[in-house]
């Protein structure tokens, strides 16, 4: 399944405990159709010190969430939008469904 979200995109969360939050995509996992968004879906991880001198403890970090739960935010109109594809100068580009601006 093709994902419309890429690393570096600004996205808005559509459902779940973080509904309405905006953030930047840190990484994508296309094989699982998941994305990791900055400051969204925070979980606590109990880490154990692996090397001598390294600290263990409780760390808060972002967990992956399904790409279908996020929507790309258009830089021009500032709204969450579906992604359309247009061929321009022989290249396929992503465009906003609302205003037609490039994403």
Walk me through the topology:
Layout: E1 10-13, E2 22-29, E3 34-37, E4 42-47, E5 57-62, E6 65-66, E7 70-73, E8 80-81, E9 83-88, E10 91-96
Antiparallel strand pairs: 1-2, 1-7, 2-3, 3-6, 4-5, 7-8, 9-10
Report on the architecture of this protein:
It is built from no helices and ten strands. The mean pLDDT is 89. The chain has a six-stranded antiparallel beta sheet with strand order 6-3-2-1-7-8, with no helix packed on it. A two-stranded antiparallel ribbon has the order 4-5. A two-stranded antiparallel ribbon has the order 9-10. The chain has strands at residues 10-13, 22-29, 34-37, 42-47, 57-62, 65-66, 70-73, 80-81, 83-88, 91-96. By secondary structure, the chain is an all-beta fold. It starts with 9 loop residues before the first strand and ends in a 7-residue tail after the last strand.
End-to-end span in angstroms? 20 Å
What structural class should be given to the helix and strand makeup?
mainly beta
Spell the H/E element sequence. Answer: EEEEEEEEEE
Percentage of β-strand residues: over 45%
Strand order of the largest sheet: 6-3-2-1-7-8
The counted number of beta strands is 10
Helix content: under 10%
